[in-house]
Design a protein that fits this description.
single chain; alpha/beta; Rossmann fold; Helicase, Ruva Protein, domain 3; 4 domains; 5-stranded parallel beta sheet; 48% helix
């Protein structure tokens, strides 16, 4: 469906089997400010429908091979908004009723006055434009209603800036990179971008790059052919191919190896993948959204991430604020999670009392929104009644830590890895050494936690 810009001449497809009438109508319409295109006979009219995408169709009814009614049906199928005007020298009540029932805009009998036809064509052009504008307005209203009702929870300035950026870039095809601490909602924003995009009816697929070893990750991403490795008993499509027409979310992309990064760079440069064990490339149609809790520029300086891949990913960059920087959103998030937990459990929602709410707002939430959700789920399960007090929250939330994790004392500027190591060890200790629970609070896969502990020289 095409819409006409203000001031442009409406494209009119004129179909008739008489050359004299076509020539006469062509001259008349051009003189009156239309953009006529003539087709001699119904078959030629059908061909030109697809090529031209006319804004108005003016066709004779009685033609050999293909009739005007068939032209009408084809035009309406091609573009439901196109007005079709039928002409005939043998008008009957039955044919007029059939034309109206088939969706004709107007039914005019030959011979007709020129001014009568031009008036009908002008009304048809206005009718089409109004239909298109009305559809566009309804779509915009639905988009705004959807945006407001489905917006990820939060009204803090920092969070609203993230949502506004998502709403701006969603209609584009640009690659998106989302940076933020674990648990800040990177996948939530990725899904929000997908839901507001033209790809929303397509799939949204995701993979955690830090959760799989390199060989398995590449097979999952790019697919493989039969015999590519032990256990590859048949061809398998990768997730890039499976996400065709939709969005593919690569979480923890900072955890990928240099070899995988080279292959991801090829995907972004050429929009194609080569399955493991194959030699021929396969084109892909997918929007890529990547996320990381690492500082990729620091990773580049350390030689762990390719700069060329970073610049390919960093077309639209999101920085998600940690929960401690959006404290005013804690009550809204708490209410949202408690409502959702109650719905899943089939019970009335619980709420935090003033003491619990104060403790929740004063706690730093190092695991961010994910840690808040997990704490509330635990509290909702273990707390009798409909009110959760401060005692229902995990001890780490209500107890104050006397010594801050990072101080101004030497070293004044610890490395990112030192801070990460200290934080991981603190969470692990808070969870009594339970590595599965610690990984959940940290928002990382248990295998990623084991790799980090191994890198720090800590026995797993």
């Amino acid at each position: 469906m095409s819409s006409r810009t203000a001031g442009s001449s409406p494209r009119v497809l004129v179909v008739d089997d008489e050359s004299g009438i076509l020539e006469s109508l062509n001259n008349l319409l051009r003189t009156e400010g239309f953009d006529p295109h003539v087709a001699h006979g119904g078959r030629k009219g059908l061909e030109m429908l697809a090529e031209l995408s006319p804004e108005i169709v003016l066709t004779d009814i009685r033609m050999p091979s293909v009739t005007g009614v068939e032209i009408l049906a084809a035009a309406r199928q091609h573009d439901p908004d196109v007005p079709v005007i039928l002409m005939t020298a043998q008008a009957t009540l039955q044919s007029a009723m059939q034309a109206v029932n088939e969706g004709a805009f107007y039914y005019i009998q030959k011979p007709f006055r020129n001014d009568e036809l031009i008036a009908i064509l002008k009304r048809a052009a206005e009718h089409r434009q109004l239909r298109i504008e009305n559809k566009s307005l309804k779509q915009e209203i639905r988009r705004r209603e959807r945006t407001l009702s489905d917006r990820p929870v939060g009204t803090s300035k920092a969070w609203l800036e993230v949502l506004q950026l998502a709403e701006t870039v969603a209609p584009t095809e640009s690659t998106v990179l989302i940076q933020g601490e674990s648990g800040t909602g990177k996948e939530v924003i990725a899904r929000y971008v997908h839901d507001l995009s033209s790809r929303k009816s397509g799939p949204f697929l995701s993979i955690n790059c830090g959760a799989l070893p390199e060989s398995l990750l590449e097979s999952e991403l790019f697919g493989h052919v039969k015999g590519a490795f032990t256990g590859a008993v048949k061809d398998k499509s990768g997730l890039f191919t499976a996400a065709a027409g939709g969005t593919f979310f690569l979480d923890e992309i900072g955890e990928t190896t240099p070899a995988t990064q080279v292959k991801l760079l090829r995907v972004l440069q050429h929009r194609e993948v080569i399955p493991v064990g194959a030699t021929d490339a396969e084109p892909i149609d997918v929007r890529l959204v990547a996320a990381t809790n690492r500082d990729l520029e620091e990773e580049i300086r350390a030689g762990r991430f390719r700069s060329d891949l970073y610049y390919r990913l960093n077309v639209i960059l999101f920085h998600l604020p940690p929960l401690r920087q959006r404290v005013e959103d804690v009550p809204l998030l708490a209410d949202h999670f408690l409502q959702r937990i109650a719905q899943v459990r089939g019970e009335a929602p619980k709420h935090l009392d003033d003491g619990a709410l104060t403790a929740a707002q004063e706690y730093a939430w190092p695991g961010n929104v994910r840690e808040l959700e997990n704490a509330l789920e635990r509290a909702a399960i273990l707390t009798p009644g409909d009110t959760i007090g401060a005692g229902g929250l995990p001890a780490r939330v209500t107890q104050r830590i006397a010594e801050p994790l990072v101080t101004a004392r030497t070293p004044a500027n610890p490395t990112l890895e030192a801070v990460e190591r200290a934080y991981i060890m603190w969470v692990l200790q808070s969870e009594g050494g339970n590595k599965s629970r610690a990984a959940e609070v940290l928002g990382i896969d248990p295998s990623t936690l084991y790799r980090k502990l191994s890198r720090y020289g800590v026995e797993a």
